[in-house]
Amino acid sequence: MSIKILLLSCICLLITACQPDQHSEKLYQQQLFSFGTLIDVSIMTNDPDQAKQAIDIISRRFDQLHTQWHPWQAGDLGQANQRFSNKEPYSSSPSIIKLIQDSQRLSEQSNGLFNPAIGQLIKLWQFDQLENEHYQFTLPDAEKIQALIQKNPQMKDIFVNNTQIKSNNSSVALDFGAFAKGVAIEQMIDILNELNIHNALINAGGDLKVSGSKNNKLWRIGIKNPENAQNPSVKPIIAAINLNPDEALFTSGNYERFFEFQGKHYHHIIDPRSGYPAKGTQSVTVLSHDAALADAASTALFIAGPELWPEIAKKMGVQYVMLISDNNKIYLSPAMAERIELFTDIRPIIKK
Amino acid sequence: MLTIGKVIFKPADILILFAASILTLWLYSIFWFSANQQGEAEILRVQFADNPPLEYTLSEDRTIVLAGKIGDSLIEIKQGKARFIHSACRNQFCVFHGWLTVAGDSTACLPNRISISLKSALSDYDAIAGSQ
Amino acid sequence: MKLHFTTTHQDHRIALLAALAITIHIIESAFPSPLPGVKPGLANVVTLFTFIRYGWHSALQVSLLRVIISSLVLGTFLSPTFLLSLSGALLSLVSLIVIQLPFNQSSFHRHQPSALGYAVIASISHMSGQFLVAWYFFIPHPGLFQLLPIFITFAVILGIVSGIITQLLINQIQQRKL
User: CA within 20 to 30 Å of B106's CA: A129, B40, C42, C82, which one?
Assistant: First the structure.
């Protein structure tokens, strides 16, 4: 008899020990057209009404930030840019001040490769017109580009005094195209947390951040192959990674936003040193707990290219990087190499 | 009753062996030879402005025409894949995106406010990074 | 103070069978396996034999003793290997019990499957139990299911082999009292 009792107690112990969490939530998913992109919000919840409310709040907030942070519209940033060009002071909202201060720090860490002060240059390339359906793109004038590069607009040209901001370089214009999305996603995850939603994924045009998990399984993300998807022999997904709670994954790619002129693609990531679209890289993917940092770093490392990226990544405090170069080489940071699953025959190059 | 050496097969054994073979073949057909392998998409979801999303099965080839704000967008479903084949917009990002083949992938024509995404019950990915 | 246990003849028999199963289990674990998770499963022959000769009560005890004590000896107690082994053993016993249910009535008793049928059932459910636990707890990746048909094929083949062995074993010790 004693054997039976022993065995029974063992079984009870084991069954209670490995019982999975019974509290399972359902996935609630909605797509929004906002912030100049397609935003996919996934929320794990048992209360669809709560999810719907949360998505409404997020949607409104994205729209709000889009106008507030638009470099050339009548919002807060647009007005600031106007004053900068006249070297006049401008009394700005705390949200813009924080954007400026954070990007001043990141710009310095990236050796100026992440440079939101080159708004004029971006405008010269007409990337502010991507949403304008009737615009005819042309190549910018080389002399005008050169002139702007000479004037060297930098984040450190902006001075912040309480709520007053002022630039002593009239060529400075802020365009947070490589930063705003990260800051916004960071805010949205915070908003969801405040609304008591702790398991979510916000994907804004392929840049994303997660909170919590999907019923105790980590959120699993496929990374798109930067090679043209028109070609059926190309694998659509080049790698996959499981994200821990509160991790963000940002990708800068030359295939994302571009215009075509006389049969040639001109992509939107402008190298602040040359004034032309950055060369040498197809895409950079950065993983970090901070979506804003991931956003800025993916742009800076894209411009840094296959040679320089490890140094800049270290300075910016980014551990997880994958860079795919123009000649189809895959570079990984050591930490990234440990986490990423690659679905390609190309042997990755691990760079410290 | 069938005997091989000293081992006796009873009718129940034959029945069990038969069932086991069927089960094995069935598993091969599901997990190896089915058109719907894991991660492969089953449904195309089309979101058009603020309308409730439309869903189409990927197992039937078809072309969907949506009249948006700035003109027609043409979406093609072919051999379990989907893509924009025509869009009235200038940038043509959605057409350039090419075929959607993996569940979780999506693309959109923002000016026309149309997005398409692939769904599957057994999706491999919760999201696709680096897509536009 | 002296603890006094009264042990029955049945307890002795179970201890003997369990010891045999544990020995086979440990020897088996020393051999490399062609596919992770695929083992000859000779230890299950003992469980099966016990089930057919002495019923599911005894078989459950032998089976659990084998899983727990072998894992303690091999140092895998409460590890993933142990959980896999336990889930396989439990599911295979449960399905044996379920299969036997309709034959418990005396009129059907003589139609019940022989060791071979039971072994195939036990082997398939053993593999499925392990597979599901592996998938649910350790590798929650849908791609794992691509391997399921292969595993089940092995399970059927090994089930037939262990069924024949069990039947021969039963024939051999038909007359002896254990």
Answer: A129
List, as ranges, residues 6-45 from B with C-beta within 8 Å of C.
6-13, 15-17, 20-21, 23-24, 27-28, 31-32, 37-39
Contacts with B47 from chain A: Cβ below 8 Å: 31
Domain range summary for chain A, segments of one domain joined by +: 26-67+185-350, 75-167
Instruction: Kindly state the tokens that stand for A332.
Output: 């990984």
Residue in the structure block whose two tokens are 């609304």: A195
Q: Are A211 and A156 in contact (CB under 8 A)?
A: no
pTM, to two decimals: 0.66
Each residue's pLDDT tens digit, A198-250: 999 999 989 999 999 998 889 999 998 888 666 667 778 899 999 999 999 99
Evaluate whether A208 touches A248 at the Cβ level (below 8 Å): yes
Answer yes or no: do B102 and B68 share one domain. Answer: yes
Inter-axis angle of helices C43-54 and C9-30, to 10 degrees? 160
**Rounded distance between C-alpha atoms, residue A338 and residue C13, angstroms:** 52
Domain that holds residue C87: 9-172
Task: Assess if residue C3 is contained within a domain.
Answer: no
Which residue, among C108, C120, C139, C166, would best test binding to B if mutated, counting the most B CBs under 10 Å from its CB?
Answer: C120
- A12 touching C (Cβ < 8 Å): no
CATH of the domain at B108: 2.60.320.10
Phi, psi of A281 (to 5 degrees): -125, 140
Closest C-alpha among C54, C51, C73, C176 to residue C126: C51
Regarding whether B20 and B67 lie in a shared domain, the answer is no
Nearest to C82 by CA among C45, C29, C31: C29
A26-67+185-350 is classed CATH 3.30.565.10: no
Cβ within 8 Å of B, C 117-176: 117, 120-121, 124, 141-143, 145-146, 148-149, 152-153, 156, 159-160, 164, 167-168, 171
DSSP notation for chain B: -EEETTEEE-HHHHHHHHHHHHHHHHHHHHHTS-S--TTB--EEEEEETTSPPEEEETTS-EEEEEE-SSSEEEEEEETTEEEEEEESSSS-HHHHT--B-BTT-EEEETTTTEEEEEE-TT-S-SEEET--
Structure tokens at B75: 């979406």
Q: What is the pLDDT of residues C45-91, one digit of tens each?
A: 999 999 998 999 999 999 999 999 999 998 888 888 889 889 999 99
Within a domain: B72: yes
Can you read off the two tokens belonging to residue C117?
Answer: 């049928």
Q: Are strands A237-243 and A341-342 parallel, antiparallel or unpaired?
A: antiparallel
Measure the CA–CA gap between C148 and C127, rounded to whole angstroms.
9
- Give a yes or no: residue B95 inside a domain: yes
ipTM of the complex: 0.83
